[in-house]
Amino acid sequence: MTVTTTPLAPNTLDWSRIRAITLDLDDTLWPTKPVIQQTEAALQQWFAQHAPQTAQLWGDKERLTTLRKQVWQAMPEAQRIDFSTLRRRLISTALAQCGEDAAALTEPAFAIYFQARQQVSFFEGALPALEQLAARYPVVALSNGNADVQQIGIGHLFHAACNAISTGAAKPDAAIFLAGAAAAGVPPQAVLHIGDDAALDMQGALRVGMQAAWINPAQSPWPYAAPAPQLNLPSFAALVAHSFF
Known about the structure:
- This protein is α/β, with parallel strands linked by helices.
- It folds into 2 domains: 15-30 and 122-241, HAD superfamily/HAD-like (Rossmann fold, 3-Layer(aba) Sandwich); 33-117, Four Helix Bundle (Hemerythrin (Met), subunit A) (Up-down Bundle).
- Helix content is 45%, strand content 11%.
- Strands 3-2-1-4-5-6 form a 6-stranded parallel beta sheet.
């Protein structure tokens, strides 16, 4: 099958339209893979102390992957966008299958996971860029995940935070983008959305009339037909190189 691609201009952004920013978090401000690895390691260590049978399951990638799929398939479709509920259900099911006290141990285990989930390491230059951006515009976090900007320690840089749980919709659904614009108090046409995912972030934003800045480290070609994002950046930190700063 032939994939239609659209060349990306270096910068076709209309800066004069921008009155607010919506911003993806995972893989835009920090890499997600190390976060996932540390959450699994933290849970594995906790289970080893408090639920040794579950620790054995958690350390078996094949069994855990199978269980994860089963839990996801058993959940109502509307709940599948809620990563915290998914994780609680996975922990509870693993404990129960291993004959350990799911009622007593699920919430303490989830707390360990959630704490580890908020321990992020920013991409180089990302935090100073965010600080400069927040000094000029209201910035709204727009994420499908369950990163918590308050617990991470950057809540003061955000005007608001919208995610799939709070809005009942996940990117690229129009509802979450419209919620982000509403939280900023502006129409979507006045918003610049910044994110790394071509489908979830860029296409979703463009469909509701936002302008879009694609964080594209590999500088890959745009994989879809027009419209394409107005700005193509190798990193979030590269945003500070543009004239509005």
